[in-house]
Amino acid sequence: MQASRAAAKRSAQQTIRDLLNPQRLVSSIADNRELIWQLGRREIKERYAGSVLGVGWALLTPLATLGVYTLVFGVIFQARWAQAETNSIADVAIILFAGMLAYNVFGETVSQAPSLITSRPNYVKKVVFPLEILALTTLLGSLFHSLMAVGILILLNLATTGDISDTLWLLPLPYVPLLAMTAGTTWFLAAFGVFYRDLGNLIGIVVQLLFFLTPILYPLSAVPESLQPFVRLNPLTSVVEDFRRILLWNLTPDWPWLALSTVLSLVFAFMGYACFMSLRRAFADVL
Amino acid sequence: MAKVIEMRDIYKSFQIPHEVHTTLVERVLSIFRPVSYERLEALRGVSVSIDEGEFVGLIGRNGSGKSTLLKLMAGLLVPDSGTCRIRGTMCELLELGLGFNPELTVRENVALYGSILGYPKSELAKRIEGAIDFADLDRFKDVKLKSLSTGMHVRLGFATALQADSDILLLDEILAVGDSEFQGRCLESFEEQKRLRKTIVLVSHDLSQVEKFCDRVILFDKGQVVDSGPPAMIISEYRDLVSESMRSKAAAAD
């Protein structure tokens, strides 16, 4: 019964080499799965607690964004998209929306990361708590939002094209690098955020810039050939592309890029975890 | 007898920066100035060992290192040097606040804290009821935590910690706030815990209660253990220590 607490205690006394062992992360998640689930659910509940619409906001927010995108990019800018079949206003809006919902998992979680620990001093100073799972519970909240958005997208796509993508069942695949990448970044930022409060401000800018540097509002093919390798460096690029391919275009993911970004983001996640765990012992001294 | 807590030669110090730069200009200027720290040696070579089933009180003046030691036992702080060995499961209740969320209801808070403490899933509902019942907060179980008084808050924390049914219970200043009825109930549950051979470590300034509950008392001063022994003896030693320092301060003032 005390598995999670024992794990937390154990992890407080690890050497860095120990921490780089991927098994540690896996067993930490396995030990704490019940707690992660409980806290993740609570996180969603807390966000809407006291509001009249409650979880309805989780539906309303993406719908409102979609409305704005349709207006701005479909009507005002009259953006066109090479892959789209009809290039109607609704088509373009849905394409933008597909990219955005993938990016939002990253953006939403990472924006909260620098204050993840600093906003919960009680979890550091008053109870023995497996702090590493906070990144995952926040991620669970964002995942919930993105799944709501995926639901909306599928319905809208069905309404406009009368069709559901044949490759929809492959959707979990691009989620793997997306979630790993997000978790890794969150661990890094949460750990350093305890020591450098500036990160909270910095990350707001970075998340915004990265939104425009990731091919969400434009296709990757629209980027000049010479710059494409740099855009490819961003692991979110292939994720966003795959989301569109799978959700809208009946295509399979871009396998080589998917494989590469999966491997790299998993390595990155482990590094973030190791960094977090080696710094966490100093949290209580600083907070 | 089996030792459940063994701490050997523990040193712990904190570095507290002298000035806090709040404005941007100050911050930028401070890059060129060396930062000065206040080095606070909270614990200087403390060794403590506690047997299974013992009820130990830690006393001492403010800043003598009692609470720091308790946090080290809980694993919330890491010592600078020295070893710390714990056997068995542990539950800590430090200060009043807890990891509770004021926006959630009493029941939700207990459920949250309970799952952090590792209540088994099959018993979760039963233990939540048990905790709320013990804290005598049945009437308020669907009220937001922020509406409770400080005393109720502490009662709830203690009740929740008790339900964790761990081998070692670490308590920091929890008796001071409850009313006498609740203190009576605490006394009963302490007796119960003793019968179950649980170990309790208690930090308190309420000397009469320390004397009433504890089997053994450890006296701290300036980050070191002064003495350890039967409550009555150690408490009178503590009183001497306090009055002596008051006398010397009065003498210095003259």
Radius of gyration of chain A: 20 Å
Number of helices of chain A: 14
Query: How would a crystallographer describe the biggest sheet of chain A?
Result: none
Number of strands of chain B: 9
Helix/strand-derived class of chain B?
Answer: alpha/beta
Helix content of chain B: 25-40%
Largest interface, Cβ cutoff 8 Å: A-B, 31 and 33 residues
Distance between the termini of chain B: 52 Å
What structural category arises from helix and sheet content of chain A? Answer: mainly alpha
Write down the overall mean pLDDT of chain A. Answer: 84
Radius of gyration of chain B: 21 Å
CATH class of chain B: Alpha Beta
Low-confidence stretches of chain B: none
The strand order across the widest sheet of chain B is 5-6-7-3-8-9
Percent helix of chain A, as a range, is over 70%
Major sheet of chain B: 6 strands, mixed
Domain count of chain B: 1
**Helix and strand pattern of chain A:** HHHHHHHHHHHHHH
Architecture (CATH level 2) name of chain B: 3-Layer(aba) Sandwich
Q: Estimate the global geometry of chain A from the Cα principal axes.
A: globular
Can you give a write-up of this model?
The complex is a heterodimer of chains A (287) and B (254). With 287 residues, chain A is mostly helical. Chain A is built from 14 helices and no strands. Chain A is globular and about 60 Å long. Chain B has helices spanning 24-30, 66-74, 106-117, 124-134, 150-163, 180-195, 207-213, 231-253, and strands at 3-17, 37-51, 55-60, 81-86, 90-93, 168-172, 199-203, 216-221, 224-229. The longest helix of chain B is centred in the last third of the chain and has 23 residues, at 231-253. Chain B starts with a strand and ends with a helix. The interface between A and B is medium-sized, with 31 and 33 residues.
